[in-house]
Amino acid sequence: MHVARKQIQQIYLDSRHRYVGYYLRYSEESTHLAYMLEQELANLQQAFHWAIEDNKHELVARFWEAIGDFFWEHGYWQNYLEWGETALNAIRQLGRRETEA
Amino acid sequence: MQPVDFAIITALAKEAQAVVSRLEQPTTRRFEAEDIRTYHYGTISFQAPGQFYRVVVITLPNMGTVSAANAVTDTIARWSPRFVLMVGIAGGIPQGDLDLGDVVIADQVVGYDYGKVTESGIQPRPRVYPASALLLDRIHNFWDNAWEQQVNVARPVNARRPISKRWVGPIASGNKVIASTEFRNQLLAQWPKLLAVEMEAEGVFGAIFDRPHIRGALVIRGICDMADERKSDEWQEYAANAAAAFVVAFLKSSPVEPIDASAEERQTEPSQKYHITINEAHGVVIGDQAHIVQRFTSEPVARERGFEVASSSPAQFMEIPGKTYRTLIGREPIIGDIIAALRDPGGKWLVGIDGMGGIGKTAMANEVIDRSQAEHLFDMVVWESAPKLERLHDTQAIGGLTFDTVLDGIGRQLGALDVPKLKSQDKEARVRTLLHNQRVLVVLDNLETAHESQNEIARRLQPFLNPGKALMTSRHRFKGDVYAVHLSGLDETSAIRFIYQEAEEKNISRIKVAEQSEFQQIAQSTGGSPLALKLVVGQLGHLSLDTVLNQLSKIRPPDSDTNEDDYLLFYKGIFFSSWQILSDAGKQLLISMAHFAPGVGGTSEAIQATSDLANDVLTRSIDELWRLSFLEIGESPSLNKLRYYLHALTQNFILSDVVQILK
Ligand SMILES: Nc1ncnc2c1ncn2[C@@H]1O[C@H](COP(=O)(O)OP(=O)(O)OP(=O)(O)O)[C@@H](O)[C@H]1O
Ligand SMILES: [Mg+2]
Q: N or C end of chain B, less CB within 10 A?
């Protein structure tokens, strides 16, 4: 059977969703384990980036909660600065939504 | 006095007792006029009768590295041991299921006490001591687990496992009793594979350094607490006994030739000559750390045989990507030239490897690191990669490589975590100092994707390097004051050797019927690109030689390897033939794999979670992708796990030609 184009897109999007979810869980479980975070840094960065781009405020906030300190303490200053801002915005947005609700 | 085979140093009485109780004919020897020690002398017979080791056991009056160094100095003067073993208990670091009562053998000892006091605080400068390579080899080949049964004190009831396990990995040593999760994590951050912390090994290694008669030392420690706030004494007895049981069982397996008792007594050096003071012992320059970074070839072997092995390369090298080739084919002369350039103190400070994607630049950088480490050209290697995929995102991708972030990466990898936070002038001064104090090889991979011009980065980096050097790779040509090497495809002979090696590794037999002219055709139409050759060999696992050759005849190797569009088109043709062979599950897995950072990939859990394939399907699909060379399999540098990853060009094919989402 041939995997049709539409199906390919679907597989891509579904798996991307799971990818982001996996690394979010991973970062939450490894919050204090710098070596675990370091190990998956490139993937955490990628997943975090997807969360930002898809405007998933809650995911962004959770990511930041889990790895912000690590960026600060382990010399990923660039990430800390660039994403801290984004994460803060996301958290503000969340807050706004909650107050509106 | 007859020299002994092993001097066993312990820190506590209960550790000494656990060993001495296992000796044959133990006797106590004292030499009050000359030193303060009590030596327990005895023998350990081999399982095969007739031969034995002479062993002397001592315990220290105090804990700590100074006490240990002093005791070792005395013991060496009196007994001329061939090997020194440090045996006892230690605090464990939670790694995998490492638990109380387990036994840890150090493949290297990290002396974490050292640092430089500066205006901005203390900069840690750990020293690293390698364990005796000979004894480590024997440890890796000692497969008998009966020692677990020979622990002869009661196992505390709060055990999570019924028996102890043994582990091999780095141990941190310094003058601190560690009962703090925070401090433990600080150490871990620097040495992610750390298994244990203790207080003597560093002194032992300091004291034996440069002694001609001593062949090396090994540290064996039973885990009695987890170096955190819950530290208690409950497990000490058991852990001490487990370490002793392990050591004695190991020695009974006769790991090395015993000293021939009938041979002439070895000349014992006068004790004065050996009696370096502690300060001197600590002042010894450990000149030879470089070889520690050589990847540990016996590790996969050990793991294959079911041993727990924590990887042995220290944190500084964790950013070096895993090797993706078995042997590097057809690049000997170029590698020789590069090594010569790196070796030459009057030569260029920068070496640049350029060439089209998939031609073997990263692989060559990897090989150059290995060779230069074998020659001890550098004390440290730092590796920075520019991320490959930026076209994927709307927002500016993070972590783009610039001169500034190169400095950050160097600082971070050399353990100076504050560097990224410094203002640019301070940062430059700081990194300059870091690079002047040791010979560092700075590797910058994928410079074609850097956010600043590669030649500009190179130009600015140059004044920082001496006595170190830089090795750079890029798909674009290097200009300026760089020893530039341009890589093109493998020549025909090498390409054919490459095909054979690949086919053998992937068990593809169709290659056996190929004729010389057909090999030549493959070599020509792939332009000798290693990545293209790999893919073609993979196709031969499914398709007839004729079909593969026919498909190849429609593809032209790129005219010029500097034109990116040209060679991406070329790879697309080859990838596409392989893609069509794939099963649906294989396709699903490959698409899922494209999310992971290329060259980094993920563990099997991550891949399973992302692809959502059932376990057995996943296993089959991984095998399918690997045989088709869509997927590389490597070891995770610090976790004890395999990683699966795509080459950047494979990811590019999936995202731009299959999913078609690349901008
Ligand atoms: N001489 C060689 N012998 C054996 N295998 C090789 C050789 N050169 C490269 N390879 C293998 O071919 C593949 C492609 O090589 P590599 O990743 O080093 O290319 P690259 O030039 O760094 O590509 P890119 O520009 O995309 O980073 C890898 O799997 C690598 O291990
Ligand atoms: Mg590369």
A: C
Mean pLDDT of the B369-386 span: 88
Q: Which helix (H) or strand (E) holds B130?
A: strand B127-130
Residues of chain A whose C-beta is under 8 A from some C-beta in B?
A: 1, 3, 8-9, 11-12, 14-16, 18-19, 21-23, 26, 32-36, 38-40, 42-43, 45-46, 49, 52-53, 73-79, 82-83
Residue found under tokens 């795509």: B646
Residues at Cβ < 5 Å from ligand 2 ion: B 362
| CATH number 1.10.10 is the correct assignment for the domain at B500-658 | yes
Residue B637 has a pLDDT of 53
B321 lines ligand 1 (CB under 6 A): no
Chain position carrying tokens 């490897």: B353
**Atom 4, ligand 1: residue with shortest CA distance:** B328
Closest approach atom of ligand 1 to CA B366: 18
In ligand 1, the atom with minimum distance to the C-alpha of B599 is 17
What is the reported pLDDT for B227?
A: 86
* pLDDT at position B398: 59
- Residue pLDDT, tens place only, B627-639: 999 999 876 555 4
Mean residue pLDDT of chain B comes to 84
State whether B592 and A15 contact (CB < 8 Å).
Answer: yes
CA end-to-end span of chain A, whole Å? 48
Rounded (10°) CA dihedral B116, B122, B123, B124: 90
CATH ID of B332-486, from 3.30.365.10, 3.30.300.330, 1.20.1560.10, 3.40.50.300: 3.40.50.300
d(CA B338, CA B611): 41
Give how far the C-alpha of residue B167 lies from the chain's centroid of Cα atoms, to the nearest Å.
16
> What percent of chain B clears pLDDT 90, i.e. is strictly above it?
57
Instruction: Give pLDDT, residue B305.
Output: 32
Ligand 1 closest atom vs CA B494 = 1
Q: Which amino acid is at B450?
A: A
